[in-house]
C-alpha cells in the first residue's frame, strides 16, 4: 500500500485544470532565482487564493489552505486565510479536518480572538466516534488552546482520559498538561484520573501520564501529597524497564525507553525532595539505575545524568551520594563535550551540597574554562565562580586573569565581570583588590562596567593609606595605556585627587618600586588621554576635571593646564564645552575661591554606597521582572500568559506610575528655589555695577547664591528618588556646579542680557553637576532627570528650540477606533516628550465615557493631562485630544514604549481596547 | 518543556518551525535567524547545546539540515538530543531515506509526524514503530475519504465508477486492478489534492 502510493505519487501530472497544485506551487517557488521573483510568484498565488476564498470554493479549500501554510512558512503574511481553517475544521471529511487543524496550529495562536470560534467544532470533534478525528482535535487543543477554551473543554478531555484507545488516552493526558498550565484551578479535577493512568501498560500513555502528574505536583501541594503515596507505582514502572530484557519497540541502543525512564526519574526527584519517606522507598531503584545503566551511549548517559540529579535533590543516604559524585567525576573526564557539559552543569547544582567533592575536580574545571566551546566555558566559569572562597581566590583569580588575556572577544565581558565580582567578594586585603582591578582594567578593550569603576573609586577613596600607592600604580599602568576607558577614567580621577602624592612619594609602601614623576609628567598623562581619538567625551570630561583639580595642586603647570582646557571651548559636545568654559573662568578670574572649589573629595562613605547599590540593583531587578511581559523581546519564550495576566501587569504598571507621580511635585519646589536664586540677581547686578572688581560684599552675595543654590541642586535629585545620596554640601565637585553662576558677575553688560546669560548657565547646570563629580553618579540607577531643575525655566526661550518634527504615529487602530500621537520635544530637556494624543471614532455610533489609560515600563515616567472630553462623536465627526508628558530616564539608550487601554461605552455597552505602542520615532 | 522546534538548512532556510508558545511573526523570524546564526558555525566537536536568551537550544546536524529544539534551562539536554535523533529516524523511515526535498514537498506530512511525536511541548510517543504505523493509517484514511468525497461530489462519466471501485479496494486493503486504472485514478486524486 505504502509502496504503491510512493510509486504513483510524484511525477504524475494533473488531468484537470483547477488552479496550480500544491506541488507545482512549491516547484515554482523553488525555481525562483531572486527574492523579487519569489515575491512575484507568491503575490500571484496569494491573489488566486484570495479569489478562491472569496468565491467560497469548497472543493479546493484544503489544497488552498495547504498552499497558504507553505506561503506562511516562507514568511509572508497570511492572515486573510485564517477563517478558511475554521471552515475546514467545521466540514465533515477527514482530509479537510486534517489540513484545517494543521493550518489552525500553524497560522493562528492562542492570542487570536478568532480561535474562540473553533471551540464548538473542537467540542464536537472531541466527542467524535472516529478516533482519528478525536485525535486531531486533541492535538490542536494541546498545542494552541487558550485559557477560555481550556476551561470550556476540560470535561471532554477528562472524559477522554478514560477512553479505551491508548492513542486517545496519551493525547488526552498531554492535552490536560496544557489545560492545567493555562488554568491551574483545574488541577484538582485532573488529579485522580492522572494517578489512575500511572497503571497503564502502554508506554506512550505512561510517559504522558508521568508528565501530567509532574505538572500537577508542581502546582499543587495536595497533588504532591497524593503523588507521594504513589511512589511505589513509579518505582515499579522504572523497575520494569531496568530489569526487563530487550523490548524491540522501545529500545534505544540497548536501553529500554530512556525517555520514559528519564521522565519517571524526574518525577521521583520532585516527589522525593524534602520527603524522607518517599526518598527511602526510591533509593534502591536509584542505586540500581545508577549502577546498571551503561554509560557508553548518549541514551545511557542521559539516564545517568537524570539519576544523579535526582540523587542529589532527594534526601538520599551518603552512599548513594558518593555513587552520584563518582558518576559526575567520570562524566567530567569523558572526551565527549556534551557529557562534560552536563557534568559541569550538575556540579554547579551540587556545589552548594557538597563543596568538598567538587573541589577535588578543581583543576579539570579550570581547564574547562579554557575550552574552545563557548557553552562549556560558560558553565565552567559559573562553576569556578561558585567554587571560589577566601582561601583560593588568589590562585583562581590569577588563572582567570591569565586566561582573560587570550580569551575570545565575546567572552571577555563575561569573564571580566566575573573576575571583578570575585575580587570584590573575596579580596583578603585592599591592596590586592586594587591591584587586581588595575590589572583587569589594563587589559585591552572596554569590558569593565561602570558600576565596577564606581565601586573601585569608593574603595580607593576609603583606603587612605593606599592613596599614594594607588595613584602611582595607575600612573604606571597609564604609561602603557592603549585606549582603555575604564583605566583612563579611574587613573584620571586619582591623579586629579591625589596628584601631589605622585610627585612627593607620600605613603610609599615598603617594597614599592620608587617612581619619580614631575608635575609636567602627570599632566602629560592627562594630555595623552584628552588628545587621544579613542577617548569618549565622558573620559575627556574626567580629564578636564582632573586638570582643574591639578591646577591647584601643581603650581608650575598652570599655563599648560589653561592651554589644555581652552581648546574644548569650541567642542561640539555640550558637556565638554561647558566644562571648558566654566573651568577656564575659574582658572582665570576666581583664583581666590579656586582652592576651596577643588579641594580633595571627602572620603566616600562605603557603607552607604554599598547599601544604595544593593537597593538600586534590587529595584533594577524588580523592574526587570516587571518589564518582562510588557516589553517586546523580554522573556518572549515564556509561556504566553493568559490575558488576565497581561491586564494585571498593566494594572501593576499603572500602580507603579501612580507611585512615581509624586516625583513631579518636588520639581515645583526646585523651581521655587531657582526663582529665589534668580531673585538675588538684580541685587548682585547692582553690586557689580558699583564695584566692578569682586569685592567682599559681592563675595557675600556670591555665598548667598551658593548657599541658595546648593539646596536647590540637591533637592531635585534627592526628591526624585532616594536611590542615591544627596550631594553633601562639602563636596567640592557638586559645589562646582553651583559655583558657576559666578560667571555673570565678572563681565559688565546690560541687565537683560546678563539675566539670560545667568539663566543660560543655570539651564545647563544640573547636567554639569551630574557628571562633574563621580560622587553624584554613585548610585547605579542614577535617574537622569536631574534636569527637572530646569522645568521652572521651560517657558523662557533660552536655547533655540531643538525640536525636530517627529512623524505622527498611529498608536492604535482597530475597526472602530484610531489613536494618533503627535510629538513635541520641549527645548532644553532631551528626556521629556510631550505627546499630543488624538482619538478618532471610526464607527457609526458615538462613544461615551471615553477613558484613555496608558502604562509604561519603569524607566519612563508618565503624566496624563485631562482629556478634552469624554464623548466621541460617530464616524470621525469629532476628536478628543489629550496631552501626555513622558520623561525617558534612559534617553538615548531605550526608546519609548507604552501600553494602552481604552475604555468606552457604545450604545450603553462597555468596550475595552488594548494595545502596545512600540513604533515611537527614534530619539524620543 | 519544548518552546519551539526548528528545522533549518545550512543557508538558514526554515523547513519546519513549530512553536509551542505564542509569538509574533516578526519575533519568530528573528528567532529563526538568531538560532541559525548560533548553530551554523559551531565546530562538530563542540557541545550540541547553546544557551539562547533565557533558554537553551539543543541542536543536531544531519547532512545539511539542523534540527534545533529550544528547551527550558533545567531540562535534560541529553534526553532531548536523543529525541531529535529519534525524530530523524522516524522521518527517515517514513520517507525511506529522507532528504531535504522530501521535507519541502511534504511539509504538511512532516508536521503531522511531529504532531504524533510531540504534543503541547512534551514528548508523546517514544516508539518509532507506533508512529510509523499511525502515519500509514492516517494516510490510508485520508486517501480513502478523499476518493469517496470526490466520487460523491463530481462523478465524471465512467471514471467515477472506477474510482469507487478503487476506493473500495483500497478500503479493503486489496491489491489494485490494472496499471491503467491506477494511473487514471491517481491523476484524478492528484489533481484534486
How would you describe this protein?
- Chain B: Its main location: membrane.
- The complex is a heterodimer of chains A (924) and B (193).
- With 924 residues, chain A is of the alpha+beta class.
- Among the domains of chain A are: 18-108, no CATH class; 662-793, no CATH class; 809-917, Immunoglobulin-like, CATH 2.60.40.1230.
- Chain A is built from 40 helices and 10 strands.
- In chain A, the strands form 3 sheets. Chain A has a 5-stranded antiparallel β-sheet, with no helix packed on it. A 3-stranded antiparallel β-sheet of chain A has the order 6-9-10, with helices on one face. In chain A, strands 1-2 form a two-stranded antiparallel ribbon.
- In chain A, helix 14 runs antiparallel to helix 15.
- Chain A is globular and about 100 Å long.
- Chain B has 193 residues and is of the alpha+beta class.
- Chain B folds into 2 domains: 2-121, Beta-Lactamase (2-Layer Sandwich), CATH 3.30.450; 134-192, no CATH class.
- Helix content of chain B is 55%, strand content 19%.
- Chain B is built from 7 helices and 7 strands.
- Chain B has helices spanning 25-40, 77-94, 100-105, 107-117, 128-153, 157-172, 179-192; strands spanning 2-9, 14-19, 49-52, 55-62, 65-71, 118-119, 122-123.
- Chain B has a 5-stranded antiparallel β-sheet with strand order 2-1-5-4-3, sandwiched between helices.
- In chain B, strand 6 (118-119) and strand 7 form a beta hairpin.
- In chain B, helix 2 (77-94) packs across helix 5 (128-153), helix 4 (107-117) packs across helix 5 and helix 5 runs antiparallel to helix 6 (157-172).
- The radius of gyration of chain B is 20 Å and the shape is globular.
- Mean pLDDT of chain B is 80; it is low at 151-157 and 172-181.
- At the A-B interface, helix 1, helix 2, helix 4, helix 6 and helix 8 of A face strand 2, helix 1, strand 3, helix 2 and helix 4 of B.
